[in-house]
Amino acid sequence: MMHCGKKHICAVAACILVFGSILICSRKGTHLHSNIIRKIFFQEKNGSPAGHFCRGKPTQNVITPLKDNKTFIIAPYFDGRESKVTRVIGIVHHEDVKELYCWFCCQPHGETQTTSAEIDVHSDRFGFPYGTADIVCVEPPDCDPTHVSIHWSPHGNIDQLPRFEIKNRKAETSSVDFTVCISAMFGNYNNVLQFIQSMEMYKILGVQKVVIYKNSCSQLMEKVLKFYIEEGTVEIIPWPINSHLKVSTKWHFSMDAKDIGYYGQITALNDCVYRNMLRSKFVILNDADEIILPLKHPDWKTMMQSLQEQNPGTGVFLFENHIFPETISTHTFNISSWNTVPGVNILQHVHREPDRKEVFNPKKMIVDPRKVVQTSVHSVLRAYGNSVSVPVDVALTYHCRVPLQGNLPRESLIRDTALWRYNSSLIMNVNKVLYQTVL
Q: What is the pTM of this model?
């Protein structure tokens, strides 16, 4: 028989007390740890830390006017090719806007640091008072900015300023080979048949993405765009520039004295280059009625491989523009079901105007976006590396539109059926789209 005295009872009680204390503390610690985890999850779910502490009014608009009404912000992009700068694509009045400041939101705590901006108005303004500008701000050395605001003063209330996310901060590998940039779709655009034909030709030649800066189009065209958006080919960038400025449909101020030329086409093209700088190997700058047509190669990929091998280090390839007048047609490929669709049937237009050596040929481009700093419509204004004009026997820009040499007789035109090489695939693909959208 075992006998327990008072000393044994005290010892057992002390052990129970210690064990109970440890258990309670353990539970409290678990509860505290759980609260920390929940707090971190809540912060991450709600955008913290990056951007959560950034002050200012977040904006989702593609065109954002500043309060001076002389500066319009499109988007800021990180550009680390020479030094760490934020390059803001914008539109400014070339005389009235002399001073701007970048208000950076620095991470991880969201403090604001302000630097003076360099306002670099692009040289191709064509006489209009407003032009594309790079608003360039050197990033502070002790700042890792995720957002930026632009203001005419280094002083003010950050909470009242529009806040923009800085794009291209994360390194990416190119997800597609070819992106076509079309700017801008305006004037209640309704050339439905030619648009579908161009889109299907782009896909045959190798495009994966078409970015369209859309101002206005017809209801029927909206239906077609919806099809291509759902397919994953088209990305629409809303482009309501006429809500902010008096826009011209002409390229030069002397032709139409407005605020900015051709619906801000140059600004849209520059934004498109930077928007796709990290996600596309090549960017093609042309209009919806234009197709860069290979003559020695079956598609763009094999053509560009050959051109890059022959021209190492080149970032800009220029293709001669050749007019195929829509007023001269052939009866071949007169497809009855297409006759009810508004727009031009490019397969029936295979006669091109002769090139005039004394007249400037407005070339279109395929560029390596990582080598472009500033672009115009028919040439790159600033770039790393060379620009090369591609010989017309290698490729040309097929441009079906109203004639430029309208007085020429048919026999003076050059019959060029290079487009017909793709007729079987093109007809089949166009029919599929038409039957799902228009017919």
A: 0.88
